[in-house]
Amino acid sequence: MRPAEIGRLRIPARVWLFATVTLTLAPHAMAQPMWLTLFCALLLCWQAYELHAGPLKRARRLVILLLAISAGIAVKLHFGQFFGKDPGVALLAVLLCLKQFELNADRDIRAAVLLSFFLQLALFLNDQTLPVAGLALTGSLIATVTLLSLQDVRANAGQQLRTGGLLLVQALPFLIVLFIAFPRIEGPLWGLPNDAFRATSGLSGTMEPGSISDLSESSAIALRAAFAGPPPPARMRYWRGPVLSQFDGRSWRAVAAGSAAAPRYVTTGPAFDYVLTLEPHNRPWLLALDVTAAGVEHARYANDFQLLATTPVRERRRLALRAYPETPLGPVEPAGLLRMNLQLPAGFNPRTSELVDELTRTAPDPESKVARVLDHFRGGSFIYTLRPPLLGRHSVDEFLFETRRGFCEHFASAFVVMMRAAGVPARVVTGYQGGEVNPVDGVMVVRQSDAHAWAEVWHEGRGWIRIDPTAAANPTRIDGGLAAALPDDAFRPLMMWPALEWLRDMRHQWEALSNAWNEWVLGYNPERQRRLMERFGFEQPDWRTLGALLGGAITILLLGLFGWAMLKERSADPLDRAWAVFCAKLARHALPRHPWEGPLDYAQRLTQALPRHASRIRHITGVYANLRYGPPNPKHVQLARKLLQEIKRLDLK
Amino acid sequence: MAQTTHQDAQTFIDAAGTIILGKENDLRLALACLIARGHLLIEDIPGVGKTTLAHLMAKLTGLQYQRIQFTSDLLPADIVGVSIFDRDSASFRFHPGPLFSQLILADEINRASPKTQSALLEAMEEHQVSADGHTLVLPEPFFVIATQNPAHQIGTFPLPESQLDRFLMRIHLGYPDRIAERALLMGEDRRELLARQEPVISPEQIGSLQRAARGTLVSERIVDYVQRLLAHSRQSAAFDGGLSPRAGIGLLAAARAWALTHGRGHVLPEDIQAVFPSVATHRLHMASDGRMATPEAIGRLLHEVSLP
Question: Quick check: A214 and A202 in contact, CB under 8 A?
């Protein structure tokens, strides 16, 4: 058969392939460079034209060859190499588009479909969320239908889709068995090494004016916390991140504090149990609620009371933690540490020093100094805003005396500077404050927009006391979250608009679903696999146990499918199926047909038991008896299907 | 065509029902047997209407009728006929016996000697007789109704199995039920009623019914079902031996005729089941005592075979 003839014969298969390729490549557009997306789109348009109008006649092979070579050069230029995830996917995408122009035999279509399957898999290299899984599944369905259309040329699109869907449904039990029993690998399965360290948004180890207000525009989720009991009140929801002690006049930096396997504090007061699910941020900070009880595995307790992971958090991590918010922190601290928390760079913020001197000169003790400075914030008509004006060299001076508009980092920074000027050891703590309980699944969600900075001051004998100067200036920020704290006419991110309540509801639903997906699908790690296997009675399963389990389960599933297929084969005649459905339906009404009972005798018995349905029962059994035992009918299959519809509609209530 | 034949059959059964009360099923079986070109064996104690049934069928169909009372001294020539020297033509001339009729009632067939019995049964099988070197064809239709008293009565020669097989059906009239019996006791004399009865169906119509029955459709599934029944009768521990292929052919022929009397052009499993006891009972023997199969055993057999 000449290629042209195959091309003509295989039009349905080629249209399906076109749909497969389009569906496979479209989600890749998000991760691939723009020029590549455009290139593929152009090739697809050309293919669509050829499907419609027939292949171009002149110089087609040459053009395709030139396009392939130039795409290769472009990939090399853009990525610098051919190896690696992104250039590999880019090259395959171009080749898949070009493959459609040289479909000379069925095997070419099969090769293109296999390549499509691979590229659908490659989607997960960038993103493992639910929508991507849905897109990949849709692509797989269409790719399966493409293969089907090579086998069953006559079936129409609806039948093909139905068969394809049935095939995927049959694959479902295998998918579940493989998912549960396939040996899990520790660490991100999909992340290639150079991707695991890519920058993610979140807190950084330093703070300067503007660094946190940038975060506040992001509604990305930072962490989730599922509390065993009622969650702590809003004023206790401080998720501790880096503690910043070193100030150079503009930015705050963390100082290596040292850490130990056990905490430096003795926990007291009420406790809150929760499961923390932390989004990856490539840092070791665990952002636990203040402060965590001893005994967390794979974690260390920093001397500044932060909870740290032993390795950076590069994949979503789940920890069961217990917090004691009222624990006293560091009543006894080394003199060196206190001295460091009193240091101020020379030559900065002179007016602030004067103000502090004026405020605290008469104060009898450090506690009253704190109170007076806080009073200054309360009475100073400061405005809390996401868009504070830019500040110059004496940032604290300018904030306190001129702009009076700031975000939490301005308040925290100014407060700590003032406390140090007054001789009280103080430092900045960054992290997240607040969190919103998703009404759908009851999990508290903390977003990047909840990023916050507050202060800690040290008092002799009492230790580090949390002071939130933002709360002094604007108490609603702490109790009601960022959205409530902003004035009505202020700039605010889209998701904080009051009118978009329904959108937030939808987001709640969606995030609950994503959380379930994260927890049950992506979060199914070796540890959870081991625990699940133990519940099935396999203590300490190794890969051999899992392999045997996998083999056994798949054998059973295959036998089941074969059995089902054979049963189906035996009753392949639609008329027999219809009759079986009818008998099964009546069997559910305690009127089963005896195996030896003919249709008319059965109808006789049924009409006596169900006189109200007598006419329909007589009709159904009559049609069956005529089709089954009467002269062969050329419309046998249609009539049998019609009978089946009628049987399904038969309502015996 | 099926419609008119159905009406013919129904007319016959309705008319017969006015004389033989409460036996519609047996009347229909007797008719089906006639339509299937078989012969009928009625086995019963005296006085339940065997003779009346035969006489009635002859009356209703207008067939030429002869009754032969079988006795132990009956000779084959008594039923086939004899050749007698005719002086006028100086040659032997054959005088046909009572066998040369369309409908024959062979009353108390088991009282005759085996020799006479086999003469009758050969004629039934071949539809022709040989006498004095001549082969003489019997009239059409040719329908024999034989009656038989229960075998344990004194002075009987039970029919051998091979002979029983010649009868397509064996029916058992039994006592009438209470209402029918009362009507029988209160009503007119059956003999007078019979004498007044006019034919409701002509011999020609019988012929067309017989041809129509041969054209009744038997689907693959019905053949499967019959084969299952035959196989089961042979495997079943309840019976000594099983049904022969001839029994299977007879079963299908009887079911075709039965379907026709219901106005159907094709055979249903119900038709097979309706005629099965009358076709199978005299061909099967109980493994336990060697006697004829009981109705219960036949019913069990039907319930043990599922429809294909």
Answer: no
Tell me, yes or no, if B267 comes closer than 8 A to chain A by beta carbon. yes
C-beta of residue A207 within 8 angstroms of C-beta of residue A244: yes
Q: Which CATH architecture has domain B2-201?
A: 3-Layer(aba) Sandwich (3.40)
- Nearest CB partner across the interface for A596, out of B221, B267, B303: B303
- Is residue A428 within 8 A of residue A412, CB to CB? The reply is yes
Query: Domain spans of chain B?
Result: 2-201, 215-308
CB atoms A631 and B306 under 8 Å: no
pLDDT at A210 over 60: yes
Statement to judge: residues A249 and A368 lie in one domain: yes
In a domain, A518, yes or no: no
CA distances A600 to B252, B273, B276, B295, Å, are 19, 12, 17, 22
One DSSP character per residue, A525-583 reads -HHHHHHHHHHTT-SS--HHHHHHHHHHHHHHHHHHHHHHHHHHHHT-SHHHHHHHHHH
> Is any Cβ of chain A less than 8 angstroms from the Cβ of B217?
yes
Q: Are residues A488 and A607 in the same domain?
A: no
The reply to whether A319 falls in a domain is yes
> For residue A20, what are its two tokens?
């497969």
Q: Is the pLDDT of residue B48 over 50?
A: yes
Q: How many CB pairs under 8 A join A and B?
A: 43
Pairing of strands A252-254, A238-247: antiparallel
For B215-308, CATH gives 1.10.8.80
Is A514 within a domain? no
Shared domain for A583 and A553, answered yes or no, is no
pLDDT tens digit string along A64-114?
A: 899 999 998 998 888 887 777 788 889 999 999 998 888 888 889 999 999
Domain that holds residue A544: 529-569
Residue A461, phi-psi category: left (phi > 0), alpha (psi -120 to 50), beta (remainder): left
Exposed (0-12), middle (13-18) or buried (19+): which is B89, by Cβ within 10 Å?
A: exposed
Instruction: Please tell me which residue in A408, A410, A583, A613 is annotated as part of the active site.
Output: A408
Count: domains in chain A = 4
Q: Does the annotation count A450 as an active-site position?
A: no
Q: What is the pLDDT of residue A481?
A: 66
Distance CA A399, CA A406 (A): 7
B129 strand-pairing partners: B136
